[in-house]
Amino acid sequence: MIPIRNIYYMLAYAFQVLHEQGYKDVAAEDFRNTAELLAAILCKGVSVQIKRGLCRQYITKEEPLASPRGKLEIGESIKTQVLRKKQLVCAYDEFSVNAYTNRIIKTTMAVLLRADITKARKKEIRKLLVFFDGVDTLDAHNINWNIQYDRNNQTYRMIIEICRFVLKGLLQTTADGSTRIMDYADDMTMAKLYEKFILGYYQREHPDIRAYSPQIAWQVTDGYRTLLPTMQSDIVLSNKKTGKTLIIDAKFYTHNMQMKAPYMTQTLHSGNLYQIFTYVKNWDAAPGETVAGMLLYAKTDDAVQPDGDYQMSGNQISVKTLDMNCEFAVIAGQLDTIAERVR
Fold first, then answer.
1. Which of 6, 88, 295, 311 is the most buried (most CB within 10 A)?
2. What is the set of domains in the chain, with CATH numbers?
3. What is the pTM of this model?
4. Residue 228, Cβ neighbours under 10 Å: how many?
5. What does the pLDDT look like over 181-204, one tens digit per residue?
6. What is the rounded distance in angstroms from the CA atom of residue 336 to the CA atom of residue 330?
7. Is 318:308 a contact under the CB 8 Å cutoff?
């Protein structure tokens, strides 16, 4: 189990904006569950956004009007018989606060009001909801998260990601079809956060090393790549001065080892090992560049944890764990030690 405080640090590195001055009061709070933490971050982010101004977009409205406006819908006017009232159905664009991003935020805040959070936090959410009076809500289980960001809504990026974390990671459908908020996010959501956290940590704390997540091209000899799957790395640490590159694949599982029949012995996840080996062998290394790979698992409570360094076909492949159930200074020390491998 990852302490709530460390989940905040993970979010802070995944979304660098949380390092800004305005969020320091959130960082100083103690939280009893993940929902409380995310509600606090969302409230702070939405408050800041309200001061900047909520995003507006042109929304097409269609309604009967006595004074024509926009495009006249003659067929719809006849069908609905509004002509008897001396009206016409008109379709027009309205510059509205009912933007899709605002709908996501309002939906998330409404969900959090049903969560196990403090009365004070719920009161804070209700105050913010006043500013969303003209905004519709959405089906929390059927939201399009493919948001296109530009300079007008760039400040929404972190807020929407927090909303996604709440609705996809904490919202659970029960047997009777109702919904409830879980205390902790599901493994799939935590796995993505774990990956983003590690990348964000290296980008912020080790600026002398290039930390990024590039796609790795298949090293085919005939140039024919049709139907080959995309190789998307999680984290790559590259140091041009030393010519060292470390490809890290972040793994967040309930169990970090697999059981093999017939004697039920524990071994490394074979698929994970094949994956990181493939990444390393297909890396387009520059002359003199040393390339290594690492599977970095989040440590679990299991007695046996993966730990080893292997020399495979001229490259080092390591399997390590990152203990997230400790003081953050210790977590940072573990990550710093890994960074030393490219120095």
1. 295
2. 4-55+98-185 (no CATH), 57-96 (no CATH), 189-342 (3.40.1350.10)
3. 0.85
4. 10
5. 787 888 888 999 999 999 999 999
6. 10
7. yes
